[in-house]
Amino acid sequence: MNPINVNQDQSLSRIADIVAKKNSGVIILPANPSPDTVAAGTSLYLSLLKIGKTVALICSSAVDSELTGADKIQNSLSVNGDSLVISFPYSDGAIDKVDYNIQANNFNLIICPRPGQPKLDPSQVKYNYTGGSFDFIITLDAPNLNSLGEIYQNNQTQFQGKDIINIDRHLTNGYFGSVNLVNKTVSSISELIFKVIQTLRLEIDKDIATNLYAGIAVSTNNFISYSVNANTFETVAHLLRLGATKKTFRKPAQPSPFMASGSFQPPSSPQPVKSKESQPVKPIEAIEMEPQPDEKKTTPQDWLKPKIFRGGGLI
After folding, report:
1. Surface-to-core class of residue 151, CB atoms within 10 Å of its CB (0-12 exposed, 13-18 middle, 19+ buried)
2. Rounded distance between C-alpha atoms, residue 275 and residue 148, angstroms
3. CA atoms of 157 and 72, how far apart (whole Å)
4. Cα(247)–Cα(240) distance, integer angstroms
5. What are the sequence ranges of the domains in the chain?
6. What distance in Å separates the CA atoms of residue 70 and residue 73, rounded to the nearest whole number?
7. What pLDDT score does 145 carry?
8. What is the largest CA-CA distance in the chain?
9. Lowest CB count within 10 Å: 72, 144, 197, 263, which one?
10. What is the tens place of the pLDDT at every residue in 232-275?
11. How far from chain centre, in Å, is Cα 197?
12. CA–CA gap between residue 142 and residue 173 (Å, rounded)
């Protein structure tokens, strides 16, 4: 038997053992994750929720994706706890004060916008819980812990003493986990996560199948990259039988149509090219000569912060 397959089977068995014994965990994506990584992370997150695990999906970068579950990605290292968090879009100066009162058996949180600012849109309000602890960490597509960005850099002590499951396909992976499922020849991280989900005997519904299909498709340039093999097509066939929908998801904008290999890929849609002549650059000397605003008219730093009231009194 191929020693690579033996090592992979051993790693999958250890992952299944950890997940079976632990109740709560976090799945952490690297900073600026690829669409394939987001697809893999959301799929694993959704499948673990189905068996009652308390799990959070985390990334230090903002993620804009149409994949199911991508809206659950958070930027703090925490899982569901007992503290209710109410969140909504906010910009400096938009809120005048926050108050509360208790009427009958209801606790009412009152958020007052500053005069001239639009009132809060209830459809944009989100609710979740925080303050919980976690027992295991799953990292996806991360060659080392530093690639997780601020999530690791600002919370290194929380990684200590935890089971870290390192799932990756980078050639440069540092094998930093308690368990290292590193396959450097697999077509995509989504294909590898499909194998993990199968090993854990987790349900793959239509949404999860669609996410995994999209991850494999985008990572392999619609199944034509050199890393595609028979296993890839077997995985795709399985996902289609499970109800995967062949959708076209938005890709992040690329800085150049030229790839590292020297080949050319046409952009997905033509972008207008702005002439340098239409973007005049102001000399630094001219900027230095411009009058500075009167410091006496500067708004105090705390003026735009919302004022918090309790029981009718300012605190």
Report:
1. buried
2. 37
3. 24
4. 12
5. 3-89+126-241
6. 6
7. 97
8. 78
9. 263
10. 999 999 999 999 998 766 655 544 444 444 444 444 444 544 44
11. 19
12. 7
Rounded distance, CA 145 to CA 154, Å? 12
**In the chain, where do the E strands start and end?**
24-28, 54-58, 79-87, 95-103, 106-113, 126-132, 136-140, 163-168, 179-182, 307-310, 313-314
CA neighbor of 29 nearest in space, from 47, 39, 41: 41
Burial string for 237-262 (b: 16+ CB within 10 Å, else e) reads ebbeebebeeeebeeeeeeeeeeeee
Average pLDDT in the 38-51 region?
Answer: 97
Instruction: Tell me how far apart the alpha carbons of residues 212 and 68 are, in angstroms, rounded to a whole number.
Output: 11
**Bigger pLDDT: 124 vs 213:** 213
Span 89-96, mean pLDDT?
82
Give the CATH class of 3-89+126-241: alpha beta
Instruction: Pull the structure tokens for residue 237.
Output: 């066939």
**What is the model's pLDDT at position 128?**
60
The neighbour count for residue 95, using CB atoms within 10 Å, is: 19
Two tokens at 195?
Answer: 């194998």
The per-residue pLDDT for 77 is 86
Mean residue pLDDT across the chain: 82
Q: CA 188, CA 169: separation in Å to the nearest integer?
A: 8
